[in-house]
């Protein structure tokens, strides 16, 4: 496929079509107010992106419960008090011509106590001295995801994306290493997937036929089993419970290194699944126009842009203008990011990423 294919519209099962194949990945940036409200820094960041040409823009991971917080200055959607700031974000994205989505997040056992988080493990064996969630508590968290999706709709977003990656609560429940429950949310692979499916089903019922639902899935670490995740994804795609699947890969070209699927690309494990009307995309070191176009050739319907968007907020415009476009080489200086419009809060967050910001750069 050519670079021009990245700029073809992409219809979704529900709601408006994506205007092209470039989606902004949900990016943690730790620049909201301490109560979870969207700050001026959040709005400045979104305003830059909204003019950048993306088809769909996600918020950062956004808390569905106050106790599910993972990061300092994390955006929230667990209270109606967050609606005004979120509505402003949704309006800004819409004015720029893109679709908008809130990434719904609960940290599960990884909730940060220092920030008021309440660790909520699937298993009593995960954290010393912390009991497993009771069934009714799992149901409460499920309902909090659904309530947060309803708030997103009220704020004017086109949809939500479920954070089912990196050991956060939906991912945690999928893992046989982190979920040894004996109720209906544990044991078989069907039971371990139940929380995710009930959230998807509940959001569709609550938010109607025009609301878009995405699902971010990672396939590594935290005891996750690739073959199980493939089968769960196949079930979800067959039922068309979501509009798009976002594969959060550390490297979009990575190879499966063990098990029955050894030797295949991680991406091909999922792009080979019959997807009906569901769209599939991937993130992971997509830094150039060439690599983005290659992912379409490898079976993706769209491509998620993360680090390249932090470096240059208008990545889609740059790719359209120059088919040979490649992102600046990492690491960059803090001043480079500052000159490009990133806040000091965002820059401080990126200093924690290996080889992104040059050490000791001012």
What are the salient characteristics of this protein?
13 helices, TIM Barrel, 8-stranded parallel beta barrel, 362 residues, alpha/beta
Give the terminus-to-terminus CA distance. 41 Å
The string of secondary-structure elements, in order, is EHEHEHEHHHEHEHEHEHHHH
| Helix count from the secondary structure assignment | 13
Number-wise, the strands total 8
Question: What value does the average pLDDT take?
Answer: 97
Q: Evaluate the radius of gyration.
A: 19 Å
Principal-axes geometry comes out as: globular
Main sheet: which strands, in order across? Answer: 1-2-3-4-5-6-7-8
User: At the third CATH level, what is the topology name of the largest domain?
Assistant: TIM Barrel
User: Which CATH architecture of the largest domain is right?
Assistant: Alpha-Beta Barrel
**Which CATH class of the largest domain?**
Alpha Beta
Largest sheet: 8 strands, parallel, barrel
Strand residue content: 5-15%
| Count of the separate structural domains | 2
Proportion in helices: 25-40%
The residue ranges in which pLDDT falls below 50 over 5 or more consecutive positions are none
In CATH terms, the superfamily of the largest domain is Aldolase class I
User: What would you call the structural class?
Assistant: alpha/beta
